[in-house]
Design goal:
Elements (H helix, E strand, L loop, with lengths): L4 E4 L9 H14 L6 H4 L12 H9 L5 H15 L9 H10 L3 E5 L4 H10 L8 E3 L12 H10 L6 E5 L2 H9 L3 E4 L15 E2 L3 H7 L1
Parallel strand pairs: 1-2, 1-4, 2-3, 4-5, 5-6
Helix pairs in contact: 1-4, 5-9
């Protein structure tokens, strides 16, 4: 393998958190008489609500103002209840072990918070596979800006072209490309309908990707 490091997105790549988050948002929209199609919701996947906001979208659709503090609290409770017992994506640990034994460095690069990402890495006991975890706050801008990926390369002491990125979202793909990195896509059930043509390669699962390394 020609890459010095593999940089993994977190949500939807290493742990299937995105479906539960989407379902919680969908229930919020439906409770107020509106739908939330995946092709609209996925605009914020891999980034934050500055890119596209379901909150603003629901307010525009309904003409209402909401107590988002209360709704956010209840939605987060729903998400965490849905994720009880969640494990790593199929193929995650064999892939990480293969990279480890091959001497290829590994990092997580996510637009989510350290509290969220580090919490899952520790809960599922696979933080030791990663040399570095880069999250929002570690660089000036999150995805689709390239800053997080460039910060990871800088801390690893690698040129961007020596890094392979594993992503599942358009925002993540654009961030990796803007950073000058090779990007492989593994869509999940939230992002499987998106057009990933600009990606260097697309795989159906981490199991398939592992076989290609």
């Amino acid at each position: 393998m020609k890459f010095g490091a593999v940089l993994f997105d977190f949500d939807g790549v290493l742990v299937d958190t995105e479906w539960a988050i989407y379902q919680a948002w969908l229930k919020t929209f439906q409770a107020h008489g509106h739908d939330l199609p995946l092709d609209i919701y996925t605009r914020c996947i891999g980034s934050d609500f500055a890119t596209w906001s379901p909150k603003t979208h629901l307010e525009d659709l309904s003409g209402l103002d909401f107590d988002w503090h209360d709704l956010d609290t209840r939605r987060q409770e729903t998400i965490m209840a849905e994720l009880v017992g969640e494990q790593t994506m199929t193929g995650t640990l064999p892939l990480l072990e293969k990279l480890r034994t091959s001497g290829i460095r590994r990092a997580v690069v996510s637009s989510s918070s350290h509290h969220w990402v580090d919490g899952w890495l520790n809960k599922l006991a696979f933080a030791h596979y990663f040399e570095l975890v880069i999250c929002r706050g570690d660089a000036a801008k999150i995805k689709p800006a390239p800053d997080l990926y460039l910060e990871a390369a800088k801390r690893l002491g690698l040129a961007p072209q020596d890094c392979l990125v594993i992503e599942d979202s358009l925002n993540g793909m654009h961030a990796a490309k803007a950073a000058g990195m090779t990007v492989w896509i593994v869509p999940n059930r939230v992002t499987s309908g998106l057009n990933f043509t600009p990606a260097d390669r697309t795989f159906q699962s981490l199991v398939e990707l592992c076989e290609a390394i």
